[in-house]
Specification:
By secondary structure, this protein is mainly α. The chain has one domain. The protein contains 16 helices and no strands.
């Protein structure tokens, strides 16, 4: 697959890598007794290094990365076109765009539960993992295991209440949907405003109002993405030499590996200034910002992340996110239960992980086709409402610099949501 020259391909690679981290994070949670908290003792610097590596398998950080990406990607089109019809059509398409695949995922999870039963509970007892014992922190109730319940969850509940029982990672979809609506409301206004102090002041007021209260606090992630979009549209992104990129990349990894539960001394300064509430995502937002700036601002990284592998990772990211949890908790758990008497627990856990990854990839490819076909259908359905070209930018709404050529192409497909 060749890369489109005007597409933000490096961000597709970032999306795919974050999806892989989510899968690894859940595999560690599901198939090891202590999850990401399993740190050896008595080895000096090795303990710190191990804890840092486990910190990089950070599901919460992946959520932040993808919410920031959503804010960035969803905001960019409004740099050129702020017609009311554009805003309304974009907003109206968002729920069906997401709900088609979440519904398929929930029905798929329902089918797996009926095929494999509750083998995950047996595997969890042998491994000693609380995450798998609770069906991925989403306990299922026997009375709610009908196909109609799965259908309703995929269509409605994951968006309106955030309640999930069939496919636990879909708890983020409510935040994704309403965060998207926040962008569709805020981005056209912010792009139309010429004053950066006024732009930042308005965003600051919203972020302070949202505070650290779940789930409202996550609107800040999307707005940070909007800030990046305005900087990019006005050609204000910095350039990084390779040395600068190396130092900045290490800083980004440090921020993205942060977890409040860890006891590393190097995290103490961050913890000292963090406001109360659900606020760790602000640290991860900073890491996400640095990653996006690096991928678009360093020539070497931009070239590396502009090949077909990055496109494929981006295409696979959403399907992998949707499917990996149910497969781990069904086929993966069954493989573990059947092989543990012969192979022992470590080898059986590794086998179950490999089988889960292979099945997830195999099932993800058809979902890529479905996702693209559905997106194209929605585009054709709403095209008549966007026939008139956007008006010429007036002095009132003109951005302060010409738009980069990348804005001539549509943004990468797929919602930027994980975990």
């Amino acid at each position: 697959m060749s890369s489109a020259p005007n597409k933000l391909v490096p961000l597709e690679g970032l999306r795919g890598i974050a999806a892989a981290i989510v899968v690894l994070y859940h595999l560690v949670l599901g198939y090891t007794p202590k999850g990401v908290g399993a740190v050896p003792h008595g080895h000096g610097p090795l303990d710190i290094f191990t804890q840092f590596i486990l910190g990089c398998l950070n599901g919460g950080a992946a959520v932040a990365v993808f919410f920031v990406l959503s804010g960035f990607i969803l905001s960019l089109p409004f740099a050129k076109d702020r017609r009311l019809s554009k805003i309304l059509v974009t907003a109206l398409k968002r729920w069906p765009r997401l709900a088609a695949l979440t519904t398929v995922a929930c029905l798929f999870a329902w089918l797996l539960i009926h095929l494999f039963g509750h083998n995950y509970a047996t595997a969890a007892q042998k491994i000693g993992t609380g995450w798998m014992a609770t069906h991925g922190n989403a306990p299922i109730k026997h009375k709610n295991l009908s196909w109609s319940a799965a259908l309703y969850e995929g269509l409605v509940n994951v968006f309106l209440t955030g309640d999930v029982h069939f496919d636990s990672p879909l708890w983020t979809m409510r935040i994704e949907l309403f965060g998207s609506f926040a962008i569709f409301l805020a981005a056209p206004i912010l792009f139309a405003i010429q004053s950066w102090p006024l732009r930042l002041g308005l965003i600051f007021i919203v972020m302070v109002s949202a505070g650290g209260i779940y789930p409202y606090t996550y609107v800040s992630d999307f707005l940070i993405g909007t800030i990046l979009a305005m900087l990019y549209a006005e050609d204000r992104f910095p350039s990084f030499s390779n040395r600068q990129a190396t130092l900045t990349g290490l800083a980004a990894l440090y921020l993205l590996s942060f977890t409040y539960e860890q006891k590393l001394l190097i995290d103490a300064p961050i913890k000292a200034i963090m406001p109360p509430g659900d606020t760790s995502h602000f640290v991860w937002d900073a890491g996400a910002v640095l990653m996006i700036l690096l991928l678009l601002g360093n020539p070497f990284l931009r070239r590396v992340f502009s090949h077909s592998w990055a496109i494929w990772l981006g295409l696979l990211s959403f399907p992998i996110y949707l499917l990996h949890g149910p497969i781990m908790l069904s086929a993966g758990a069954t493989v573990f239960n059947q092989t543990v008497p012969v192979l022992g627990q470590p080898a059986s856990a590794l086998t179950a992980c490999l089988i889960s990854v292979a099945l997830t990839l195999a099932c993800a490819f058809p979902l890529i086709w479905l996702d693209q076909a559905w997106t194209k259908f929605l585009g054709r359905l709403t095209k008549p409402f966007l026939k008139n070209p956007p008006p010429q930018r007036s002095a009132l709404i003109q951005t302060t610099a010409p738009l980069p050529s990348m804005l001539q192409a549509p943004p990468p497909s797929g919602p930027a949501t994980l975990v």
